[in-house]
Specification:
2 domains, 11 helices, Endonuclease I-creI, rod-shaped, single chain, four-stranded antiparallel beta sheet, alpha+beta
Length: about 325
């Protein structure tokens, strides 16, 4: 199963007080349900392909309102689609619509009596994610969590509730509806904590740490390779300059400092300046600093360039 499915399976089993059940049920029915009027009267319908979520809705309705519900299942015509479960609530439909603010004119869901307490806001987000949420596996190359809504105002309400917990959520219009989404890995981890998916949070953080560790090792290795290539390129350039001096000048007439640098580089053709500084004590019984060596090799390169320039005139 996917990480999103496992996360929802965990959230289904989170225990909650009655006030939180109301907030959770409000989100579920607002986002993935609809109010209908027929010859049989007013009713509330909820649709889902997840049997566990269907059972969650049924249990919450029975616990809170003590009414029976009608359950239907419908085969999906598209290939490999799960059955659609339809829950129809007829008894006390008007009470449920009013109490859960399913047709509330309020633009700010945070002002609703349902979401006065922080625990209820957490439950509202849990219900919203169960209804229409998705989350990328922490093993994937990108971090992304989103909750889909058909109506813009519902998406804005979800985003505002997410940002009550400082999750840096944003709202985006899609071809079909709207989404409230989070892209930062740390904020997605915070959402899992807020919603109560603690086991999923541990799995998510473990995979994220592993991935970040591998990425850090890769960056360090790339830096080491780049530094090594830079060292080799500089050493090869110095060796070419030394070859010009050996062929075109009398090395005996060169300053002692230059001759020491030449000897060091020829003895250790692939060493960095730091390593040459360490080797200098072995060869000359004294330590030549890195900056001094760098200055000497610049002089060697300048001499070689001057010689080649004179030859080309």
């Amino acid at each position: 199963m996917s990480f999103a499915f496992d996360t929802k399976s965990e959230l289904i089993n989170v225990k909650a007080d009655d006030c939180c059940k109301l907030a959770e049920l409000s989100a579920l029915l607002t986002i993935n349900g609809n109010v209908t009027i027929s010859s049989e009267g007013l009713s509330v319908q909820f649709h889902t392909t997840n049997l566990g979520i269907a059972r969650k809705v049924i249990k919450n309705v029975k616990d809170l309102y003590h009414v029976d519900v009608e359950i239907r299942s419908k085969k999906q015509m598209k290939l490999q689609k799960h059955d659609m479960y339809i829950i129809i609530i007829k008894n006390k439909a008007s009470m449920i619509i009013n109490e859960l603010a399913l047709m509330s004119p309020s633009e700010n869901i945070l002002s609703e009596p349902l979401l006065i307490k922080e625990c209820c806001k957490r439950s509202y987000l849990r219900g919203a994610f169960l209804a229409a949420g998705s989350i990328n596996s922490p093993k994937s190359s990108s971090y992304h969590l989103e909750i889909h809504s058909n109506r813009e105002q519902d998406a804005i309400n979800i985003t505002e509730t997410l940002n009550f917990f400082n999750l840096n959520a944003k709202t985006l219009k899609r071809k079909k509806g709207y989404i409230s989404y989070i892209k930062e890995s740390e904020k997605i981890a915070d959402f899992l904590r807020v919603a109560g998916a603690i086991s999923s949070l541990f799995i998510y953080e473990d995979e994220r740490i592993k991935r970040d560790f591998v990425n850090s090792i890769t960056r360090v290795m790339n830096m080491d390779i780049a530094n090594q290539n830079k060292t080799l390129a500089a050493a090869n350039n110095q060796l070419r300059s030394i070859s010009v001096l050996e062929n075109m000048t009398d090395l005996a007439k060169l300053p002692k400092s230059i001759k020491e640098a030449i000897e060091l580089r020829k003895q250790y053709p692939e060493s960095s300046l730091n390593e040459l500084s360490d080797h200098s004590y072995d060869l000359f019984n004294k330590t030549i600093s890195k900056s001094a060596l760098n200055h000497r090799f610049r002089n060697i390169n300048d001499l070689a360039e001057k010689i080649m320039s004179n030859l080309n005139e």
